[in-house]
Amino acid sequence: MPELPEVEALAGFLRERATGHAVARVDVLAISALKTYDPPVTALGGLTVTGAARHGKFLDVDVDGLHLVVHLARAGWLRWREEMPQRPAKPGGRNPLALRVHLDDGSGFDLTEAGTRKGLAVHVVRDPADVPGIAALGPDPLAPEFTPEALAAIVAGRRTRIKGLLRDQKVVAGIGNAYSDEVLHAARMSPFKIASSLAGEDVAALHAAIVGTLRDAVARSAGLEAQDLKGEKRTGLRVHGRTGEKCPVCGDTVREVAFADSSLQYCPSCQTGGAPLADRRMSRLLK
């Protein structure tokens, strides 16, 4: 799933490549991906792309005051094309096409979504805040107002595991499954630690890990082609998706806790005092 660093890089990529170009037309192949109807997606035709931004994990393309807002969900992606195919787009394939945006110079981009679970969401709105998911976002972890004091206020009184709290977009915007694993590894913190139990030094360490991990990932992704972002993300991850490999910090074996539709990875030596975490049925440290 694309998270804050990848969406930030996509926004920067589109600012560089698409700004100043008019939308020639928009082809919709997956009607289910469209979540709004007023203004219609056809209203983008003839308007000029004036910028691109990120709101949490939402990508926002400004088209003369109308906003094409995209949430890529679990398996969506943006694929840039210097030259759009002349033949009409067809549904299906390995990465089914949901929407295609043609620009006036022949370039453009596709929104695709692999797999059977469809979550890609496309909105055309006059104000990004009209998208319910954006209106409900918590603070951006790279914003100046996201201070250690702000994080302390967030975790105070919350009887929930810190892993889940970091992934809650209404609490902190932009962090998903992968970067929450990376943040907790950098903070040397168990993913099952209860948020309200964090002391002052714990909060400071977690804040530093959040900001540092995300800034590093954004810096690595800056200037990359859209097609290279997924590979860069995988390369930069230290524990997420690396079950069975050696921790790059201590050399211990990275372990996994599997859930119904996701999993988390962690280093026992770095994060849980050497004790392995229980599976999803027990959800507590093994004794």
TrEMBL record:
Q: Which UniProt keywords apply?
A: DNA damage, DNA repair, DNA-binding, Glycosidase, Hydrolase, Lyase, Metal-binding, Multifunctional enzyme, Zinc, Zinc-finger
Q: Which reaction does it catalyse?
A: Hydrolysis of DNA containing ring-opened 7-methylguanine residues, releasing 2,6-diamino-4-hydroxy-5-(N-methyl)formamidopyrimidine
UniProt-listed PROSITE patterns: FPG_CAT, ZF_FPG_2
Q: Which Pfam families does the record cross-reference, listed alphabetically?
A: Fapy_DNA_glyco (PF01149), H2TH (PF06831), zf-FPG_IleRS (PF06827)
**Which segments constitute the FPG-type domain?**
238-272
The record's listing under InterPro entries reads: FPG_cat (IPR012319), FPG_N (IPR035937), H2TH_FPG (IPR015886), Ribosomal_uS13-like_H2TH (IPR010979), Znf_DNA_glyclase/AP_lyase (IPR000214), Znf_FPG/IleRS (IPR010663)
Q: Which cofactor does it need?
A: Zn(2+)
Q: Which domain of life is it from?
A: Bacteria
Task: Extract the Gene3D superfamilies matched here.
Answer: 1.10.8.50, MutM-like, N-terminal
Ranges of residues in domain Formamidopyrimidine-DNA glycosylase catalytic? 2-93
Q: Report the sequence similarity comment from the record.
A: Belongs to the FPG family.
Q: What protein name is recorded for this chain? A: Zf-TFIIB domain-containing protein
